[in-house]
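Q: Hi! First time doing this. I have a protein sequence and I read that you can turn it into a structure. Is that right? Here it is:
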Amino acid sequence: MADLVLSGRWIGKKGLFKASVGSIRFLSSLDEIVITQNPIFLVVSYDISNLTTGIPIKTSGYPNIVSIEIKDLVGLRHSPMGYKINYKGSAVSDTGYKKAIDLIKQRISDGVIYQVNLTNKFDFEVDGDVLGLAVDFYQRQPVPYFFYLNHEGFTLISGSMELFLSRYGNVIKSMPIKGTSTNRKTLKQSTKDMAENLMITDMMRNDIGRVSEISSVSVPEIFKITKYKTLYQMHSTVVGICDKTINEILHCTFPPASVTGAPKIKAVEIIDSLEPHPRGYYCGCAGLVMPNGDFTLSVLIRTAYGKDNKISYFAGCGIVWDSDEDMELDEMYLKVRAFYPLYPSKNN
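A: Yes, that's right. Below is the predicted 3D structure, encoded as structure tokens:
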């Protein structure tokens, strides 16, 4: 039986909620997603990108899609039992990350790409109360789209604040995030972050346009800054009128533009050539799908997953032509410390 905990914002409430779980299905393709008489919590791995983009990528070996039936949600009551978490290392050193940034900037100079989201994997060993670890992660930075999943020793934790897609009635919406800082004024005045945000917003306009009525797509918000407990984030909002199914929508929009780059297909190819690790569930999407077909899906950023006592957390940055290597590393450190406050300042 699976343990599933959701932040209340998924259902318009405050606090954390534990799900009463029914059937669990492991799916290979988007076409296998089925709406049921109860809400389902859906997890879609970035691995599915090899099907939606046609680009062969490294895959994690975990199921492409997990579909969990939810029978009920009740307020979480959890008595902390204590845990220990030890940092074991990362997939890429700081030096290696900077080298990859240089390679991306060369591809930008060559006119091949405009922006690439470059990520790293940080490995940990956890002993004790993993749910306690997840709750502490949430309490350090409460976000709308937190969840914790444990099934037969497999753990997935996401502290995402990014809406990939929602659809209520015939209105589809995305709120792509690009731009992170500990200072609101710095973020507001950052032409680099605004340019990056604009590129991704334009990509989401294109993606949503593929599934929406002609001339129905609009951008009601641009460069909006939201404060969270440890940082500020910049997002924009894209909406359209859509009557497609979730399967059709994901075929046309996955993987999320904000965690790939522009143009998307070339970005996926470059990402796979530069990152030594498969992303797995990180940079995929997850969320609630209702019996009437409405849904809310987050982008799986601020995400960790693993088996037994081994867990990996992922973080990255959007790289553009004027990216500063040290500033990109600082941004990545900031994201890692949301999960592991003791993360060292250097990783050589």
